[in-house]
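Table S4 entry, Aminoglycoside phosphotransferase domain-containing protein.
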Amino acid sequence: MSATLSLLDGDITYESATQTDRNVINQLAYVPASKALYQSLWEQQHAISAVVKRHLRLCHQDTCTVLPQSQWIQGSFNLCIPVQVTSGARNTKVLLRCPMPHKLPEVDEKLRCEVGTYVWMQENCRDVRIPYLYGFGFSDHHQFTHMTQRPWYIRLMHRFKRFSFKLLGYPSLSQYMEIPMSNRLPTAYMLLEYVDTDVGQILSNIWTGQRAVPVRGENLLRSLAQLMLSLARIPQPRIGSFEFRDDCTVTLTNRPLTCSMVILENNGTPRAMQRSDTYLSTESFVADMLSVHDNRFLSDPNAIYDDDDCRSQMAIRTVLRALSHHYIKKERRNGPFFLQFTDLHPSNILVDDEWNITCLIDLEWVCALPAEMMAAPYWLTGYKIDELEGQRLDEFDKVRKGFTHIFEGLERGMPVTYGLSLARLMNEMWDIKGFWFWHCIGSVNAMLYVLADHVCPSYGLHLSAETEEILSRLWCEDSEKVVKRKIAEQESYQQELRRLFGIDEIGQLSPGKGKTGSPRRSNEGQGPGGS
C-alpha cells in the first residue's frame, strides 16, 4: 500500500490529501507531465541552440550550449532553461522560458499577454528595469525577434512603418518582427536576458532575515510605489490585458488574464470570460469575476467538506454579490482603469543591498483593472492574507500607512493625467473594507477566509450557521439540490483518492468532518511566495 504520492511541490500523504481543498487528483497528473516536458526539451538541445543562435544573429562558429537539467529553473507556470552563449571573446547566458502546458488552460493566450506587457513596458515604463526580450515563439510556430537582430535595411523599413502607424493612429507597432526559422521547438517560448546576481538578489531569499531593518523596509516601499505608479501613469480605456498580435501590434483586447483565473481554469473551472472579453464598466467585470468563483465552486469535486460548509460557501457568494455595489465608486465605474500586477511577490523582485528594487523578473498576469483594486501588497509584513488578524493586522496597517504616505508623495510629484489621487482612493478602500472585498474578488479563495472577519462586521452581519443556511437559499434556485450534488461529488472524489493511494477499506483513514479546528482549506496563492 502506498503511503504517499508525489506532487510538484513535494510528497503528500493520504491523510494530508483528505484534509486539503486542493484538487489533489488533478495535481497528481502534473508530475509525469513535468517529467515529459523536461525530457522533450532535453531531446531538443540542438533545436534550442539553433533557435537561440537565430534570435541572437550569431555566426556559424559561435556556440550555444544548453546547460544541464540540474540548472534548469521550474516555477509555477514556466520552465526556464539557461543557455551558455560563446561568441568570440564574449561569454554570456540567456534564458529560454517555456510555459508549462499542464499548468495553463491556454499556453498562447498566456504568452501573448506576457509578451504584450513586455512590449508595452519597454515603450512606456523605461524607468522599470526588466529583462531584455530577444524574441519569442508561439505554439503555432510563428516566431518573432527584436528588430535590432535584423539587417539594417529591414530595420529601416520597420522604423518607417512604426512611424506611419503612430502618425495614422493605428495600434502600436512593436519593435519585434516575424522571422522565418527552420528549427521549431515543441513548446512556446520566450528568449530573455539572464539576470544574474550582479543585478540584485531575489527578495524572497533574504526576506525573513532582513525585513526588520527600517531603512531597507522604507526603500522597498518606495520602490514598490514607484513601480506601481509607473504602470498606472497612463490610464487605460477598458479592463483587460495587452496582447501581442501576429501583425506585431500590441492591443488591449484580451480578457483580464489574472493569476487566480488561470489557476482556477487549469483546475477545471469552466470559463466565465471568453478570450476577447474586455470591460468598459467595473460592474460587468465584477459580475463575471463572481461567476468565475461560482463556476469554481460548482465544478470542483473537492470544493466542500460537508453540507454545512457547502451552505457556508453559497452564503459567502450571496453576500459578495449583495455588497459589491458598496465598493464600486459611481464616478469611476466607467474608468479610467489602471495597469496592475495580480501576482507581484518577493520571488519576482530583485533588490540591491539596501532593498531598492533593481529588476522585475516576471511580467505575467498584468491587467488593466479598476482603480479601486489598487492597494498595498498584503505580504509586506510576511503573512498570508488570512493571517492578518489582531496584532498582525495592526502591524500590517502601520506598514500600509507608510506605503500609502510614500505613494502619495511620489504621486504628487508626477505628471498625471487621470484626474484622481490613487493614494487617497487606497486609503478610502481600506477605511470602508474595500481592501478585503477586492481581494475576495481577485484571489483564488480569499473569500473563504476574510469576508466574515473583515467585511461582514461593518454591516452588523454575523455568519452563523443559521444565517448561512438562509443566505444559501438565495444563491440559486433549489439550493438543497446543489448541496446534495456537492456531497455526492465529494464522496466520489474521496473514493478516487483511496484508489490512488491504494487504500481499499472505506473509512480506513477517514477525513475530518465538522467545523471543529481549522477548515480543510489550503489558501492557495495567498502567501508571500505567491502562486
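Confidence is low (pLDDT under 50) at residues 509-520, 525-531.
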